[in-house]
Structures are given as structure tokens and as C-alpha cells.
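C-alpha cells incoming
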């Protein structure tokens, strides 16, 4: 079987809801990221054989197959096809995996895996309606926040531990921004402010330098009066885009490209759609088994911080070295633009692997209605 390599990647800053990126259409934002990736790698856009783009809420400005329209907006030749992928929160991680699968299967030699979500302009859930009566007969479907509460209860995670983890996410993200580590993966976006004046967004807007454990502790639970899940220990509603270039050995040679990582193994699992967010636990076990590796082989781990309880419950099962887990902060601080987060996690893991001179990184994400995706990459 052929190998699939990650050549490079870029992402926009992640903007707060109604923040700096909210005046950019998501299809334009995705196009901006695609153009930046082509410029960074030096490839001809016409050499790309497919664009796989994660996007969750595929209505309005994110409809009409944004995976096809964004490359056209970016000036790619009409011969370059594109598709949209909705694996909910893991959509762009799924895009990376599908790109790797196509390369391994000798279907393509050069594929862009991307993702985008403007949660300011296209509200989460606006692509849905009511649930089937038959589904509700089978499962007591609840909001994800209630699932996060269920996880906190099942693993006996205190409100204090959730807030402490979330505070750490902000502190790590702020340190990563200050040191310039995150700047390596971020491309600037030119837009306008609320008054129509030109502005350039250069860094993530989510991390809060003014937060504290006291402030976090003062917030009321969102989903249960006596609950533990608050806005502070949940991921932020965010706008953003990410894109990565993947290639085969033949693609590398033909276009004079140098790989940065190899896609080692992938997994996708289903779990109970009610508690729904426990999927990273079995997905981690499955991807390690497929890779023939041990948990301790992972030098960097990026697990999406949909809620602090998701990460801490996973941690109760694997007992990781927490210095290797989300070392530059996660979605609680940086935000979670649904369709773009997976690409961001892969890109951040890749940069951190190189910084640490490590070998393997694990990326995993919980997903609504009870699924999870996991991917292992190897630095080359």
C-alpha cells in the first residue's frame, strides 16, 4: 500500500463569535486559506486532484457544496473538483483521513484536505429540523451540553477540576501566542471592522488574558441548575478555516515537495448517541491497535476540547503525561469552528512534533450523536 504524506498546512486565526472574522463569508474565508496553502507550498493549483472540505452546517453561505465553490473562488482551474464532508465536529479531520485514503488507494497523488465554519454567519444547528419520532423512541437524545454533564457525573469530575483544566487551556494558548508558536500556522485575514474600516486579523481572538479561576467559578451552569458545565469549561463558538496538502511519493517527486509527516493510521467509532461524547476513548484504542503502537509512543496528543469533561474523562482512562496533551491550549481557549477544528488539530500537532523533535502524534475528536475519529501521524 502506498504512503500518504502531509506536505504543509495553514489556517486562519480563529475569531470569536461576531468578532473579527464575522464579516467574511465562509466560502471566501475558505478560498483565502486555499490560496495561502498553494502559495506556501509552491504548487500549481491545477495540480491538485481533489479538494475535500469539512463543513458541518451546510446551509446558506455554507451550502451549495462549499467544497467545490471555495476552490473556484480561489481561482483554481475548473478541472479541480471539490466536495463537502460532514462528520460533524471531526469533519476536517475526516477530510484529512479521506485524502490519505485516496492517496493510499492510488486514486490521487495530490489532495487538499480543508475545513471551514463561520458560526457567526451560519448558526450551529440551522441545517436541522425536528428529530424522527422513531429515533426518539429508541434514544433519549439530549443536547451535547447535557451529555457533557453526564460524562462529568459518570467519571466523578468536579466543577473545580473542569474549571482548572479550562484555565490551563487559556494559559497555554496565551503562552503559545506570546512565544510565536501558533503564528507559524496562522495566515492573516484582511477584512473590515463594524464601521467598515479595513483591519487585518493576525491572531486567535479566543484566549482570555483577563480570565481567572475566580471568574470561571462565578459562572452559572448552562444545562442543569446544579450542574458542572459552564460557558467557561466548554469550547467557544468560533469562525475559522484550515487547509493541508497531502501527497503520495509520486506526487512528492513530481512536484518537488518535501513531506513533513506521514499518516500512520486512522479510526472511526460509534458510541451511545445519548452520552455521545465518549468516543475518543475507544477511538484512541482502535487507532493505536491499527498502528501497532503503544499509548506511550505518542509524543504529542491533540484531543478536541469540546468540553473539559470530555478530555478529563478520556484522561481518567489513559492517564497521560498531561504535558503532551494539548500543550498549546485547545478549543476552550482557541475556539471550535466546527468544520475547521480537525485541520487545526493536525496542523498544531505537526508543528509541536517538530518543536519537540518527537516522532508520533495522536489527534482525536468527539462527535455529536455518538462518534469519534482518531488519526496518528509520524514526523518525517
Amino acid at each position: 500500500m502506498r504512503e500518504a504524506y502531509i506536505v504543509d498546512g495553514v489556517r486562519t486565526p480563529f475569531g470569536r463569535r461576531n468578532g473579527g472574522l464575522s464579516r467574511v463569508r465562509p466560502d471566501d474565508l475558505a478560498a483565502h486559506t486555499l490560496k495561502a496553502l498553494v502559495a506556501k507550498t509552491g504548487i500549481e493549483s491545477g495540480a491538485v486532484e481533489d479538494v475535500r472540505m469539512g463543513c458541518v452546517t451546510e446551509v446558506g453561505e455554507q451550502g451549495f457544496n462549499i467544497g467545490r465553490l471555495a476552490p473556484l473562488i480561489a481561482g483554481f482551474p475548473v478541472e479541480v473538483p471539490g466536495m463537502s464532508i460532514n462528520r460533524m465536529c471531526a469533519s476536517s479531520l475526516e477530510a484529512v483521513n479521506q485524502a490519505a485514503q485516496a492517496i493510499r488507494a492510488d486514486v490521487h497523488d495530490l489532495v487538499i484536505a480543508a475545513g471551514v465554519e463561520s458560526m457567526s454567519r451560519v448558526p450551529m444547528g440551522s441545517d436541522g429540523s425536528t428529530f424522527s419520532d422513531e429515533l426518539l423512541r429508541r434514544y433519549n437524545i439530549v443536547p451535547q451540553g447535557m451529555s457533557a454533564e453526564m460524562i462529568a457525573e459518570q467519571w466523578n469530575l468536579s466543577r473545580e477540576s473542569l474549571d482548572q483544566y479550562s484555565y490551563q487551556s487559556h494559559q497555554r494558548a496565551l503562552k503559545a501566542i506570546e512565544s510565536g508558536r501558533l503564528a507559524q500556522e496562522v495566515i492573516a485575514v484582511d477584512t473590515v471592522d463594524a464601521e467598515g474600516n479595513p483591519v487585518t486579523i493576525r491572531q486567535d481572538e479566543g484566549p482570555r488574558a483577563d480570565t481567572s479561576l475566580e471568574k470561571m467559578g462565578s459562572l452559572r451552569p448552562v444545562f442543569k441548575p446544579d450542574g458542572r458545565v459552564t460557558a467557561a469549561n466548554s469550547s467557544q463558538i468560533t469562525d475559522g478555516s484550515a487547509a493541508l496538502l497531502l501527497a503520495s511519493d509520486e506526487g512528492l517527486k513530481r512536484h518537488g515537495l518535501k513531506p513533513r509527516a506521514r499518516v500512520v493510521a486512522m479510526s472511526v467509532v460509534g458510541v451511545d448517541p445519548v452520552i455521545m461524547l465518549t468516543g475518543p476513548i475507544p477511538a484512541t484504542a482502535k487507532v493505536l491497535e491499527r498502528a501497532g503502537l503503544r499509548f506511550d509512543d505518542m509524543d504529542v496528543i491533540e484531543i478536541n476540547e469540546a468540553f473539559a469533561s470530555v478530555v478529563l474523562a478520556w484522561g481518567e482512562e489513559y492517564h497521560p503525561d498531561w504535558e503532551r496533551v494539548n500543550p498549546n491550549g485547545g478549543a476552550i481557549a482557541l475556539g471550535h469552528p466546527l468544520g475547521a477544528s480537525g485541520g487545526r488539530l493536525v496542523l498544531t500537532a505537526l508543528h509541536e512534533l517538530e518543536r519537540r523533535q518527537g516522532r508520533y502524534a495522536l489527534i482525536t475528536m468527539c462527535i455529536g450523536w455518538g462518534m469519534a475519529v482518531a488519526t496518528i501521524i509520524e514526523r518525517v
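note: The first helix runs from residue 26 to 41.
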